[in-house]
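Quick one:
INPUT:
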């Protein structure tokens, strides 16, 4: 069951010594074959893989979680993918988002679109446990009802 989506972006430290070259290489793919240092994530979403294949990223370090990736990006190890809501929380680290162009569409005119990294999170459970009260409460909680509303709804309308 799909639970929610999260927008992510490509970030770099604002004081990265090679920031201008990296931003230019990402803005115009193929213009610079010099590898771009990249903070890789240990878990890979399909959109991460597509991004890595589209540019000459060179993984220089890997991170298990969002926090460690943000620290490594802020420490100027390279560019990396972070959820946009999390990147806003670490503003003191002076991270800036790099606009990533999507492949241009050629019709009668050429459009340049910005690539959006959207991650979808799912709730996984055994199908034979779908009607269990704890599973239903957990689903409601994750889908945004909140603890108090779920507790009140469960007491007023017990799951059968």
């Amino acid at each position: 069951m799909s639970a929610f989506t999260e927008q992510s972006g490509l970030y770099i430290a604002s004081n990265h010594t090679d920031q201008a070259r990296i931003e230019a290489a990402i803005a115009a793919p193929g213009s610079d074959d010099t590898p771009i240092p990249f903070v890789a994530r240990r878990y890979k979403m399909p959109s991460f893989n597509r991004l890595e294949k589209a540019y000459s990223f060179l993984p220089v370090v890997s991170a298990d979680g969002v926090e460690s990736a943000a620290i490594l990006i802020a420490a100027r190890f390279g560019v990396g993918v972070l959820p946009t809501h999390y990147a806003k929380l670490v503003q003191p680290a002076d991270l800036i988002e790099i606009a990533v162009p999507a492949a241009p569409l050629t019709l009668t005119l050429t459009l340049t679109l910005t690539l959006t990294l959207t991650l979808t999170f799912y709730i996984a459970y055994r199908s034979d446990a779908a009607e269990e009260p704890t599973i239903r409460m957990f689903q409601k909680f994750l889908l945004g009802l909140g603890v108090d509303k779920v507790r009140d709804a469960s007491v007023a309308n017990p799951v059968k």
